[in-house]
Amino acid sequence: MSEPMKWRPWRFGILMVLSGVTIAAALSVLVLTPGAGLGSLVAILLFGGWLAPFSLALHYHGALKSLKSLKSATPTDVEKARSAAVAAVNDSRAKASRHEYHQERTLGRIERELRQLSVLAPHGRWTGADGLDVLFVTSNGAGLGHITRLLAISQNLPPNRTFELLTLSKAYKQVAGRGMTVHYFPSSEATGENTARWNRIFRNYFRDLVTTRRPSVVVFDGTWVYNGITDVCRAFGITLVWVQRGMWRPEVDEASPQRHAAAGVVDHVIVPGDIAGNETVDSGPGLEATYVGPIVRTRKEDLAEREGACKALGLDPAGRYVLLSLGGGSISDPDSIAHTALTFIRSASPELIPVQVVSPLVDIIEEIPGLRRIKAYPVMAHARAFEYMVAAAGYNSVQESVSLGVPSVLVPNFSTKTDDQVRRARLLEKQGLCLVADNETALRESIARMADANIRRELRSRIELVDAPRGAEEAAAAIEEIVEQTEWIRGVDTVKGSEIFDA
């Protein structure tokens, strides 16, 4: 509320003098020049001389009433007036916010339509009778986790289903030539390309791949669905499924506009379970997630016996081994977590030989005394070669170590963008299914405990009670149902009239 104008007598006096002069001048003109045709001017001067003081008087009268009202108002009256003013301001802001919200939605819709127009421009909608059933797509990721989950699902699809893989992982050659066609597209991180430009180029590539391979369903595994994938799938009428690994960091989960409004980017969401603990994901309006069990590629019944597993890895069956699967820098670096773990293993169990899994992207394997270094994918197919393992608490490592009966020391990675490895490791530890080392002291103590064969036996006995994960089969069944729902499009046909009416 603005402050009332203060009473200034001199202002009113000056205005009254000017008003009087104006009226006197008007009368003088009227008397001294009668009939000169100056009637309009006289009228204006008289009206102006009267209106100015009258308006000021009214203003001061209103201001005086407001002032008296404020002086006589009770605190309750003042509070009511203040509340009314605040409510009016809030209402105005709410109306503006609603307007901005609708405007933002409209602009978003226009942007999506423009992107789809750019997708459709060079090609029309395909409606042929043959084509790929499923195109699996993965983001880059720090390892082979996304690929491994999709491979596990693909292995459980019906034998008559056709599928291929598109990945941004530089480790694509590790899965090529295993009965699956693999397409590789370099990620923006791998190329150093500007993100906006990379997305445009990827959209064009994906559009051309879809036009060539003609999938009925696209299944994406990653934490962010690229706009190009959504645009192309919707422009071509292809069903898009998002396989969404759980255990996201809380702050990342809350900040994700896609995860909690999934219908805006995909048609279905599949959430794999986690042996450490399952969770419910709010996918937003219009889409309800499908929950399946934990997904693993290698099942216990598929494991080779210990002697065969050792030979497959180039290890002497007479030796005893510890699997070391940690990132965090070169094992030659004294400050790396892998070097620290290696030192503790040698100290606690000199009779055990550490075996490190080397990244498939490493061209030359450096020889380190007392350490065997191997390239193998999937290495857990040879799990019986090892007494125990020291590994990061990533999704695949945890599901495989438990489901395959391997005692483990889990070392959570604190620097992951999305995966909450600390929470996963702690939940698994509460169930008595692993040991956890989230600092150097705990790592030394855990490795020292794991050197005791009795501790390893106790862990194995508890692990044996865990149900075998069936997530890969359940996810494959869900995708098969989606594929079946899309098969009606293949009934589109054209028949020439001569083929019907020929005698």
From TrEMBL:
Key words of the record: Membrane, Transmembrane, Transmembrane helix
Origin superkingdom: Bacteria
InterPro entries per the UniProt record, alphabetical: Glyco_trans_28_C (IPR007235)
Residue stretches making up the Glycosyl transferase family 28 C-terminal domain: 388-449
Family annotation (Gene3D superfamilies): Glycogen Phosphorylase B (3.40.50.2000)
SUPFAM superfamilies to which the protein is assigned, alphabetical: UDP-Glycosyltransferase/glycogen phosphorylase (SSF53756)
Keyword Transcription: no
Statement: the UniProt record of this protein carries the keyword Membrane: yes
Listed transmembrane segments: 12-32, 38-60
Protein's name in the database: Glycosyl transferase family 28 C-terminal domain-containing protein
